[in-house]
């Protein structure tokens, strides 16, 4: 678990968060628009989503040792290649590879390994430990990348980041995951559902809709919040600082969700948090012009910013058991990641035509509906066949 906590922090920091810092200098050097360059990250997220199911099947059949070790190596080589690009075609080709590597090494396969090796009573704590540490990936790597770019330029920065990814994550995955195959799975008293049966369960599709709506809402806020806060009258520096609250509070939300398992099912707690998120962000157009009001809205919204990463495995395990977990989680991750990739573009189009207020209210509605669907799934009996 300690090894995965470290590799998730470095993996997210290098493969995802560093991009926001590198976007500007890279675009200027290549002579392309930031929108064109940003599309490369969208392509990576889409590839990662499309690979979720085959990666899940591999994990269920063979475990995570070879997959995550090779994925770490692929990620390091891809970042190294990124430092040498000179055309848009090369940029997008590199990010297709980064998307593939992300599908092989980030949360979904890491959680599948936890399910395979941890006793059922210890899974929640193990998942919380990993996500708590990895929750600081942006806090560590965004400033680090900024310092490196300022000192050495964006290409040399990528060489450093590729080295970190290679020399930290590849050895840890190779050494720590050797005995994490499917045979290591702990037996459970309840009868686990096969992936095929899960797809015939209406509750699974309600879960999918809920997490797709929530993922899309978070992606829109992550991209557009700073611009919206500026439109409300806050300075760019203050807007960026306020937006930074979301990353810090996401860790708090994960702790609250995990601790609440002592009294409530994860689906119930998560549903409540998502509804609070929706109400909080819906008040931002009214209260956000004042600093205290903006902080209050974003604190409440931020509690749910990272809760899905800890809630998804807990809800799936509670409803379907551990057998075939990686395939089931991969099936759920596919539309969620596609929504995460596409939503910011849709949000930009809506903001350009109707303004930010309707966009924020739409995000609020998505969070509230997602919370209601999770609450409904908890009451919906699992349909079994055979």
Q: Could you estimate the helical fraction of the residues in percent?
A: over 70%
Radius of gyration: 20 Å
Question: Largest sheet at a glance?
Answer: none
Overall geometry comes to globular
Distance between the amino and carboxyl termini: 37 Å
Structural class: mainly alpha
Number of strands: 0
Order of helices and strands: HHHHHHHHHHHHHHHHHH
At a glance:
By secondary structure, this protein is an all-alpha fold.
Describe this structure in words.
- The structure is a single chain.
- This protein has 386 residues and is mostly helical.
- Helix content is 81%, strand content 0%.
- It is built from 18 helices and no strands.
- It has helices spanning 2-30, 34-50, 52-62, 65-82, 88-105, 107-117, 123-134, 137-152, 154-176, 195-198, 202-231, 236-259, 266-282, 284-287, 291-302, 307-320, 325-354, 356-379.
- The longest helix is centred in the middle third of the chain and has 30 residues, at 202-231.
SSE map:
Layout: H1 2-30, H2 34-50, H3 52-62, H4 65-82, H5 88-105, H6 107-117, H7 123-134, H8 137-152, H9 154-176, H10 195-198, H11 202-231, H12 236-259, H13 266-282, H14 284-287, H15 291-302, H16 307-320, H17 325-354, H18 356-379
What are the key terms here?
386 residues, globular, 18 helices
């Amino acid at each position: 678990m300690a090894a995965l906590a470290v590799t998730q922090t470095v993996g997210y920091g290098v493969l995802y968060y560093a991009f926001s810092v590198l976007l500007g200098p890279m675009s200027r050097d290549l002579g392309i628009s930031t929108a064109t360059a940003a599309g490369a990250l969208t392509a990576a997220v889409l590839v990662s989503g499309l690979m979720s199911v085959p990666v899940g099947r591999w994990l269920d059949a063979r475990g995570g040792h070879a997959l995550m070790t090779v994925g770490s190596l692929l990620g390091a080589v891809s970042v190294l290649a990124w430092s040498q690009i000179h055309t848009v075609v090369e940029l997008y080709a590199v990010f297709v590879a980064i998307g593939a590597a992300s599908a092989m090494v980030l949360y979904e396969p890491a959680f599948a390994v936890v399910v395979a090796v941890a006793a059922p009573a210890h899974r929640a704590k193990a998942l919380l430990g990993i996500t708590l540490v990895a929750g600081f990936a942006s806090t560590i790597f965004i400033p680090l990348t900024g310092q490196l770019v300022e000192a050495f330029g964006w290409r040399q920065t990528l060489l450093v980041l590729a080295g970190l990814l290679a020399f930290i994550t590849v050895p840890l995955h190779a050494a720590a995951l050797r005995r994490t195959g499917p045979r290591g799975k702990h037996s459970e008293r309840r009868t686990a559902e096969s992936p095929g049966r899960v797809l015939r369960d209406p509750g699974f599709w309600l879960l999918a809709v809920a997490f797709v709506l929530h993922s899309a809402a978070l992606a829109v806020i992550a991209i557009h919040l700073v611009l919206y806060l500026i439109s409300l009258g806050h300075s760019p520096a203050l807007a960026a600082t306020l937006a930074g609250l979301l990353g810090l509070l996401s860790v708090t939300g994960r702790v609250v969700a995990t601790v609440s398992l002592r009294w409530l099912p994860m689906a119930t707690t998560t549903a409540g948090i998502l509804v609070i998120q929706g109400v909080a962000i819906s008040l931002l157009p009214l209260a956000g012009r004042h600093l205290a009001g903006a902080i209050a809205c974003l604190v409440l919204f931020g509690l749910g910013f990272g809760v899905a990463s800890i809630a998804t495995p807990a809800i799936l395990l509670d409803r379907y058991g551990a057998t075939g977990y990686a395939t089931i989680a991969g099936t759920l991750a596919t539309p969620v990641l596609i929504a995460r990739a596409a939503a910011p573009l849709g949000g930009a189009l809506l903001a350009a035509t109707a303004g930010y207020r309707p966009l924020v209210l739409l995000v609020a509605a998505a969070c509230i509906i997602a919370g209601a669907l999770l609450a409904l799934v908890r009451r919906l009996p699992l349909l079994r066949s055979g």
